[in-house]
Amino acid sequence: MSDSRDLLILGGGLVGMTLALAAARQGLSSHIIDRADPAELTAEGFDDRATAISTASWHLFTNIGIAEGLEQFACDIASIAVTDQNLPGRLDFTPEAHEGTLGRMFPNRRLRLAMFEAAAAEPLINWVSKAEVIERQRSEFGAAAIISREGGEPEKLMGRLMVGAEGRGSPTRDAAGITIAKWDYKHRAIIAGLTHSKPHGNVAWEIFYPAGPFALLPMNDDADGTHRSSLVWTVSEDDGKAVTKLGDRAFLAEVQKRMGDVLGEVTSVGARSSWPLGFHHTAKITGERLALIGDAAHGIHPIAGQGLNLGLRDAAALVEVLTDGARIGLDPGDAQLLTRYENWRGLDSFMVALATDGLTRLFGVPGKTASAARRLGMSAVQRTDLLKTFFMDEARGVSGDLPELLKA
């Protein structure tokens, strides 16, 4: 069996699925192949993680038609508070009323559901789940993937451009022999949902400790009015397993000690998960009839909550490049188009990656002197409107050369 489409997207996560939906809006067809079972990915309790969606990414969701169904699950981020170990010298980022929010928080499950439902209803998307890619083929004439599904014969799916979107361990990237720079932070992110006595006021807290950032991200209250937030706590790799295994009472005590009274008393904690943290960035993001997007191309520290948003910028840029090419009759795998995508996204993603790496190292320097110097710098930023506006624009994703899909 064979079937040919414009795009052959390997990886059906949030970035790969967004690419397929955005491409379909521009008349580009795709195969999207993923090994996971969507029923498992959207099951209650599978993934308690939540994701910050920037203003620009929300524009993208609006432009591809999924924002309306997601709106009821959004929790606005009205302000970001940054402190060094809850010591004096707090930095606040609060946009003017006419500028809107700094972003929105969503449960990952809700993002997946919205995208999966939209993809299932889109005739230009052939979504193949629970499938293993057993062979990848690329040549000047096109791209193909040989896939295997449980109990079936191997199938061949063809496209004019192969897109690697499988995440940090992308086998498509590795099979293409693309060089990658990477290092391990020797940190783990502990993720859990919290309930607490005080309302969060739509404030996202970033409390920096030498071991790593401690982030409290606002979520919608429960139906009964219980206040909720999402915790992303970075700990050393050595401490990660021990922290994950703490009983609820001990874990809550550790959380309370680090967050102080900003959310009042922590009353309960949801299921905990942990993820190793590392940095990687590819030497290039394209090859012969190949483009990489999202974590397949770059993996950054979650210190600024920009990982998924960076991947969504990739998807929007790639769709714009391919759409512009289609208008003048160019094939999606045309080398000129891929060069434009490389030049557009390569530098931007690298600069964001360097910035997050620098912040991680800056706030990781221990000692009272280093802390005092950081707080002095934060106080200077707090008094400088121009700098605060710059950082807020970066957080909202509205700076730089934006693809049209990321604009209102």
UniProtKB/TrEMBL annotation:
Residues 6-342 form the FAD-binding domain. Keywords: FAD, Flavoprotein, Monooxygenase, Oxidoreductase. Pfam families: FAD_binding_3. One of its GO terms (molecular function) is oxidoreductase activity, acting on paired donors, with incorporation or reduction of molecular oxygen. Its cofactor is FAD. The keyword Oxidoreductase applies. Pathway: Cofactor biosynthesis; ubiquinone biosynthesis. GO terms for biological process: ubiquinone biosynthetic process. Belongs to the UbiH/COQ6 family. This is FAD-dependent oxidoreductase. It comes from Erythrobacter insulae.
